[in-house]
């Protein structure tokens, strides 16, 4: 049966203009009508006769009234007779009635007396019933005539529109329309014309002319959307901060903050806990930003139309608000007006239809009744967007592999079948789909069904600050809150989520106002306890009529929180983030009580209603559910001694057994969280351990009837965590354990490594596994190290790279050159390139002996769809034609983003170079090349240095064919020269450095090894002429006890297990790198690297002084200090061949 046949009667008209008016009027006519209405108002006030009640222009009406073509007075008198057969019930003088009855005033043909008749006609109110019956008959004869004329006229226009040669479309119908004076009048016209079209559509379908009906419907695409837009505007124009019951609605356009949608990634799964994802995501990385209004528009470089968009984002990031703003902008006609229909669905509402049968058309009718009222049964020929919000909340069995193919939108089936066929493109392939989801559920949609994956990213640091500045009018208060958040890494991470910014603002505002000198919460547990207490205070004051100073906790409040905690824990174990009435019943929660909780604790627990009042419950954010779940476990153990984390729950009552059981509770919680593959218990664990602190239990005084945990228990938990950190854990698990130590107020490991980093005494050779984990944690917490990661700052070794691989994955730029890497490193880096969450844009592997095998292994990762790498440097890696072939094959067959490739100082041969010439690269470097560059190590860049004797200080003696320099006390050895260092014992070499250069020296007692611009000052004892104490030079200071690097008076202490009297220098002038090494048994051990941009030619230099001594004394003292040193021993530098 045709689905539209039940809409024969009683269908409300839609509000969209159907076609143009069937009568035309001029501006002059409208002006005269306005004057007549004004005169009519005066008549009613006793200034003249009242307006007539019936139009007398049609032939039909003229039969029932006297001839009015006489003088006005006689006409008026004739109407005063009781037996005058004039209709008395309907006024046609208003604009609305003129439209309704199709009255046409042709003022050019109308006499003055006729106009007066129409304006002055009065109907006595004391007619007999017989007269009234005759009047009613005449009115309905007139009504029938006018309706028939109107409908006939509209049907003619409809026929014209359906004719093959008609192409002007709907808008041409309004060329001669009257400009209406009010929105109500325009709305009534639309309703009348909509009604006619619906009648026509109905009878066409009854006549089995469905194709013609569909074609007619496609000619009027805005017939229904006008009413749909009106409904959506009312629904979406306001939002509630918190929950609807919590307060007054706020205009969405007023509070909406632009959210960034970035393009990238695929629809593959990311199972990490969302806090992990936020912590490791670099918010300011270069990405393609897409405006919401351009979501389905084809961007430059994309040839395929976009049908389905999958938007990912963690909980609370603003996905739902984004879809609402997209829909509201369309409904308010601000954007996307080429789209005829937008149907926003949520999986929460679709879930309740799991057992019901619908066709696609019926499903749309079910949620958007305007389409049913308009008789719309087909969407093939219109632009339509389906929005499905919250895929992660879907409880429908979406099966994309074994589902029946359905192409008929009128065929009734299950809702999950409709969705799978719609997403696969079997149903309405012309439709656009927008699906939002949390990352963990993204893999439910096959990648082949998704044309573009986007991500809603959290607040950047600037957006966080803007949020708090907007949230508080008191700028001093806002600044204090922003400064406090910066002190805590946990709070910084969480504040990427807009919902957490709101929680933080709520808490800190209360703490700062009520306790001016109170300690601000620094840990997540402290923050959420304060948040809970604030909500309890609100309940006490708002609902119970209590005072600010009253005890917040009441038996009723305790019961509410205990029930919500039980629900949170049980549903967290099942992985449920939204709950229906059946879920509440399973958790032994009374449904009526749940409604009360959602009405009282509005900022914690939400009750939402779907289209047909189906109740859906959830916590305001996943972290709130995890907090309450941990609180429930803690309360249960403290109150009853039961460990809910054990499979067989056992109660512990005596004090000794209970103390041991409490330690076991926290240790088992740590172990259970570490067993989780995706870290879904990470935040739960942090909260649970946080509750063990006495300070946090004090904050919950009133909820906790007794306290538990002692310092010994906490210390045992800390030691257990440190023991776990010594095991071979993933970086993500190690990082969460450090957050757990933070919740337990233990910072010893991190502070130890931080102190070593600050002092420059960090020796990675001696780091324990736990200390390596601490270093990873510190580096991942540093915005600077996440931007550029230089492995040589920590250890130029393969072992260090493998330990710090999570930092490489998160960094934008990884500098790994000259780090003694091998094929093993290539395998690890290939995996990094394959990670969906990798941020890596630039990778420098130059001067590592990777050889052809290493490049082949690395190439497998370079072919990944997730690859974001734009710059790759493999210069000096001993690569031959075989390695070039592997690289060319991968890059030519993948959708690589690579723009710059450096393969210089290798030996590709002519054939190898030709393989790469066809790649679409902005920069390709293969020169210099040749067999000479296949020598391992840096010594292949060795150069011969020649000392410039015109620069040598007078107290320096040259020997061994000017290969050795010794400082002596004697009569000056050299004449004056403009280039000579006249104060400090220094010299420069004659030839400037080009390309890559390497040299070694042997030194005795004290030496300063430098490279310098020629413009360094030569005269006087100021720091401007000392190597390393200005912007003209860089140097390594060598003493018998330590090394230090210097530039612009800034000292970098270098940790080294021993000091060697032989050092090496490597300079890559174009790359801007200067590296110093100590040479031990012919092995290079990295000391320090400067990364800069060299703007002038460089010259090697040597000196015999310690910059630290120079900075510590005034010029006269400096000179005397150097002289005193020379009395005891002599320094020397020898250039090694």
TrEMBL record:
Region Disordered: start-end pairs: 1-80, 164-186
The family database entries (SMART domains) matched by this protein are listed as:
FISNA (SM01288), LRR_RI (SM00368), PRY (SM00589), SPRY (SM00449)
Q: Please name the InterPro entries in this protein's record.
A: B30.2/SPRY (IPR001870), B30.2/SPRY_sf (IPR043136), Butyrophylin_SPRY (IPR003879), ConA-like_dom_sf (IPR013320), Leu-rich_rpt (IPR001611), LRR_dom_sf (IPR032675), NACHT-assoc (IPR029495), NACHT_NTPase (IPR007111)
Q: Could you tell me which residue ranges the NACHT domain spans? A: 307-441
Q: Which GO terms describe its molecular function?
A: ATP binding
UniProt KW Cytoplasm keyword: yes
Sorted alphabetically, which PANTHER family does this protein's record hold? NACHT, LRR AND CARD DOMAINS-CONTAINING
Domain B30.2/SPRY, chain residue ranges per copy: 925-1120
Q: What is this protein called?
A: B30.2/SPRY domain-containing protein
Which ranges are annotated Acidic residues under compositional bias?
173-186
- Which SUPFAM superfamilies would you find in this protein's record? Concanavalin A-like lectins/glucanases, RNI-like
Q: Please give the organism.
A: Oreochromis niloticus
A single cellular component GO annotation: cytoplasm
- Biased-composition ranges, Polar residues, are 50-61
Q: Which UniProt keywords apply?
A: ATP-binding, Cytoplasm, Leucine-rich repeat, Nucleotide-binding, Repeat
> Which residue intervals are annotated with compositional bias (Basic residues) in the record?
28-45
Q: Where in the cell is it found?
A: Cytoplasm
């Amino acid at each position: 049966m045709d689905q539209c046949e039940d809409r024969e009667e009683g269908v409300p008209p839609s509000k969209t203009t159907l076609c143009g008016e069937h009568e035309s009027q001029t501006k002059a006519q409208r002006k005269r009508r306005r004057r007549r209405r004004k005169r009519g108002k005066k008549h009613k006030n006793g200034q003249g006769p009242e307006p007539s009640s019936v139009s007398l222009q049609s032939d039909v009406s003229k039969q029932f009234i006297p001839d009015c073509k006489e003088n006005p007075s006689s006409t008026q008198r004739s109407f005063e007779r009781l037996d005058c057969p004039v209709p008395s019930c309907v006024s046609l003088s208003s604009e609305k009635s003129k439209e309704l009855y199709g009255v046409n005033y042709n003022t050019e043909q109308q006499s003055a007396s006729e106009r007066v008749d129409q304006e002055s006609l009065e109907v006595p109110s004391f007619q007999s019933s017989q007269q009234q019956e005759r009047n009613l008959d005449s009115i309905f004869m007139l009504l029938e005539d006018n309706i028939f004329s109107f409908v006939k006229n509209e049907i003619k226009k409809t026929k014209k529109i359906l004719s093959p040669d008609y192409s002007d479309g709907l808008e041409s119908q309004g060329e001669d329309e009257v400009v209406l004076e009010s929105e109500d009048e325009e709305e009534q016209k639309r309703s009348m014309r909509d009604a006619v079209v619906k009648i026509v559509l109905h009878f066409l379908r009854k006549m089995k002319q469905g194709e013609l009906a569909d074609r007619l419907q496609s000619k009027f695409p805005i017939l229904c959307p006008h009413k749909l837009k009106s409904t959506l505007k009312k629904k979406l124009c306001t939002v509630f901060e918190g929950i609807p019951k919590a307060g007054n609605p706020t205009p969405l356009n007023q509070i909406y903050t632009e959210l960034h949608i970035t393009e990238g990634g695929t629809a593959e799964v990311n199972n990490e806990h969302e806090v992990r994802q936020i912590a490791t995501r670099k918010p300011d990385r270069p990405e393609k930003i897409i405006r919401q209004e351009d979501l389905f528009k084809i961007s430059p470089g994309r040839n395929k139309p976009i049908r389905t968009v999958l938007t990912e984002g963690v909980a609370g990031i603003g996905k739902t608000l984004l879809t609402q703003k997209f829909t509201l902008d369309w409904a308010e006609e601000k954007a996307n007006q080429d789209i005829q229909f937008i149907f926003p669905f949520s999986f929460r509402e679709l879930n309740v239809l799991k057992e019901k049968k619908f066709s696609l058309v019926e499903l749309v009718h079910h949620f958007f009744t305007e389409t049913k009222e308009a008789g719309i049964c087909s969407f093939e020929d219109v632009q339509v967007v389906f929005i499905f919000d919250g895929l992660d909340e879907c409880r429908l069995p979406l099966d994309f592999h074994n589902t029946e193919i359905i192409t008929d939108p009128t065929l009734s089936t299950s809702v999950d079948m409709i969705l799978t066929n719609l997403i696969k493109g079997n149903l309405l392939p012309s439709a656009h789909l927008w699906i939002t989801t949390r990352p963990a559920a993204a893999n439910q949609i096959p990648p082949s069904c998704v044309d573009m994956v986007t991500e809603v990213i959290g607040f950047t640091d600037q957006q966080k600050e803007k949020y708090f500045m907007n949230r508080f009018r008191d700028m001093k208060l806002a600044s204090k809150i922003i400064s406090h958040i910066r002190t805590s890494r946990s709070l910084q991470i969480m504040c990427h989520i807009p919902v957490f910014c709101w929680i933080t603002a709520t808490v800190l505002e209360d703490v700062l106002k009520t306790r001016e000198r109170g300690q601000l919460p620094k840990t997540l547990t402290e923050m959420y306890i304060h948040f809970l207490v604030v909500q309890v205070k609100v309940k006490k004051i708002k609902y119970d009529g209590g005072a600010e100073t009253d005890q917040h906790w009441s038996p009723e409040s305790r019961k509410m929180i205990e029930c919500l905690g039980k629900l949170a824990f049980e549903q967290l174990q099942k992985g449920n983030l939204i709950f229906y009435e059946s879920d509440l019943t399973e958790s032994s929660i009374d449904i009526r009580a749940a409604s009360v909780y959602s009405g009282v604790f509005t900022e914690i627990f939400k009750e939402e209603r779907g289209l047909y009042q189906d109740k859906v419950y959830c916590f305001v954010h996943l972290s709130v559910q995890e907090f309450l779940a941990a609180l429930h476990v803690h309360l249960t153990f403290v109150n009853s001694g039961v460990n809910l984390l054990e499979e067989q729950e056992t109660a512990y009552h005596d004090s000794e057994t209970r103390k041991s059981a409490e330690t076991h509770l926290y240790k088992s919680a740590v172990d259970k969280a570490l067993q989780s593959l995706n870290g879904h218990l990470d935040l739960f664990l942090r909260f649970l351990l946080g509750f063990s602190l006495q300070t946090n239990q004090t904050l919950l005084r009133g909820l906790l009837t007794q306290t538990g945990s002692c310092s010994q228990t906490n210390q045992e938990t800390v030691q257990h965590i440190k023991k776990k950190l010594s095991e071979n854990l993933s970086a993500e698990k190690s990082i969460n354990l450090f957050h757990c130590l933070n919740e337990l107020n233990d910072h010893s490991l991190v502070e130890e490594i931080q102190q070593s980093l600050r002092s420059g005494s960090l020796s990675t050779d001696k780091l324990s596994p736990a200390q390596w984990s601490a270093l990873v944690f510190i580096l991942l917490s540093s915005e600077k190290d996440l931007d550029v990661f230089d492995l040589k700052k920590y250890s130029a070794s393969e072992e260090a790279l493998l330990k710090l691989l999570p930092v490489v994955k998160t960094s934008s730029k990884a500098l790994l050159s000259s780090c003694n890497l091998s094929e093993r490193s290539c395998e690890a880096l290939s995996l990094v390139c394959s990670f969906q969450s990798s941020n890596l844009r630039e990778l420098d592997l130059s001067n590592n002996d990777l050889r052809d095998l290493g490049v082949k292994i690395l190439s497998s990762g370079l072919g990944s769809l997730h690859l974001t790498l734009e710059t790759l440097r493999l210069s000096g890696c001993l690569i031959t034609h075989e390695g070039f072939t592997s690289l060319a094959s991968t890059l030519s067959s993948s959708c690589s983003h690579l723009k710059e490739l450096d393969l210089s100082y290798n030996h590709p041969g002519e054939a190898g170079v030709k393989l790469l010439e066809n790649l679409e690269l902005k920069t390709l470097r293969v020169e210099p090349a040749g067999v000479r560059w296949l020598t391992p190590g840096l010594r292949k860049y060795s150069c011969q240095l020649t000392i410039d004797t015109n620069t040598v200080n007078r107290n320096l003696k040259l020997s061994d064919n000017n290969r050795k320099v010794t400082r002596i006390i004697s009569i000056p050895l050299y004449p004056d020269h403009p280039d000579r260092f006249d104060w400090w014992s220094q010299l420069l070499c004659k030839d400037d450095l080009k390309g890559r250069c390497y040299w070694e020296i042997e030194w005795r007692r004290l030496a300063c090894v430098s490279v310098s611009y020629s413009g360094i000052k030569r005269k006087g004892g100021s720091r401007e002429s000392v190597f390393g104490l200005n912007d003209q030079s860089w140097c390594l200071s060598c003493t018998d006890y330590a090394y230090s690097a210097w530039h612009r008076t800034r000292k970098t202490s270098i940790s080294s297990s021993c000091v060697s009297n032989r050092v090496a220098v490597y300079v890559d002038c174009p790359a801007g790198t200067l590296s110093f090494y100590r040479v031990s048994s012919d092995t290079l051990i990295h000391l320090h690297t400067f990364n800069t941009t060299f703007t002038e030619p460089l010259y090697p230099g040597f000196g015999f002084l310690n910059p630290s001594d120079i900075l510590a004394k005034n010029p006269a003292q400096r000179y005397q200090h150097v002289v005193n040193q020379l009395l005891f021993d002599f320094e020397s530098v020898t250039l090694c061949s």
